[in-house]
Amino acid sequence: MASVVKVQPPTDGNIITILSIDGGGVRGIIAATILASLESELEELDGEDARLADYFDVIGGTSTGGLVTAMLTAPNEKNRPLFAAKDIRSFYLEHSPKIFPQKRGLWGRVRNLVKSLTGPKYDGKYLHGLIKDKLGEARLHDTLTHVIIPTFDIERLQPTIFSSYEVVRSPCLDARLSDICIGTSAAPTYLPPHCFKNQDDRGCTREFHLIDGSVAANNPVLVAIAQVSKEIANANPDFFPIGATNYGRFLVISIGTGSPKRERKYNAKMAAKWGTLDWLLHGGSVPLVDVFTTASADMVDFYISATFQALHFEDNYLRIHDDTLTGKDSSVDIATKENLENLVRIGERLLKKPVSRVNLETGISEPIAKGITNADALKRFAKKL
């Protein structure tokens, strides 16, 4: 088992281990359920103190996945991960109704509509206070393994990737984890953008104007692989003698939060009549957000899956994702007790489903082998880790 403080350099085992967690609001419960299963397998192998941060060289997360990443890697007073994976699901069940307060009835729907037309659906105050309380003053360099959390800076109109690898070269990126998490979860129309200044130890100050990282990388696994490849190209001694294109040395687990792809919520005939308002609000959903987050995640999965298959290392890449969500299950903010508990059940069912791989022609995930479930695959990966 790796060091309790930092993961050992990948050359110790000659593999590079990457864990990636998609964005998805309250659907983070699905990912939390999968992560708890993986950590449980590691505990069986190495004891009850085993934590995901001990086994992965890089953990990347966007939006709600960015918050989960910080919770798994921020240190507590004993310099161990702040949260065990099994505790994250309870965190969502307890706090989601206060992050996304539900207004019921006709009057509630009217208030939601009016609020959506004049500003973000939620003010974010509870979420911001909660994140600051849990993560405290911990900064990017404090994480117990390397982390990568994408955001998007609307002033610069470009992604800002908070990478613990980059802190040495760009000290101004060494922001508080709380600010990073508030920024990466600031989904347009749902939560307000986050502005903050960060000063490095040389007195250089940078101002950030951040929104949800999902607009750039809802599935951050490619960002994580690219960052590692950059470190290899820059001759980071941690990665010697691994080659930049040696995908056989990568062991990648990508956790999705589900999507309503098969529900076919929208069509061209319907959208042909939409104006700006309809693209921002239709049937209780935000089509524009649905489109760019799903497109971002799928394009990454297409590329990674195709690359690993072409190089005959497909067994080194595991994507666990449910694209069959329907109705309220696919919402990012319906935080009723009923819906949250249903998301737990979806995560548990997903563990029992067969391992699937995206069909590069249809875009639909299809089972790759009979009898091998996602839970079986996690057990196999745990042994490799």
What does this protein look like?
The protein has helices at residues 28-46, 64-73, 85-99, 105-118, 125-135, 177-184, 214-217, 221-233, 268-271, 276-280, 287-310, 337-352, 374-384; strands at 16-21, 58-61, 146-153, 158-163, 194-199, 205-211, 250-255, 317-320, 356-358, 365-367. It is α/β, with parallel strands linked by helices. Strands 1, 2, 3, 4, 5, 6, 7 and 8 form an 8-stranded mixed β-sheet that branches. A two-stranded antiparallel ribbon has the order 9-10. Helix 1 (28-46) links the parallel strand 1 (16-21) and strand 2. Helix 1 packs across helix 12 and helix 2 packs antiparallel against helix 6. It is globular, with a radius of gyration of 20 Å.
Strand percent estimate: 5-15%
Shape: globular
Q: How would you classify the helix and strand content by structural class?
A: alpha/beta
Which regions have little confidence, pLDDT < 50, spanning 5+ residues? 1-7
Ends apart, CA distance between termini: 9 Å
| Assembly status | single chain
Alpha-carbon Rg, integer: 20 Å
Number of strands: 10
Percentage of residues assigned to helices: 40-55%
> Could you spell the SSE succession in H and E letters?
EHEHHHHEEHEEHHEHHHEHEEH
| Whole-number mean pLDDT | 88
Largest sheet: 8 strands, mixed
SS summary, helix count: 13
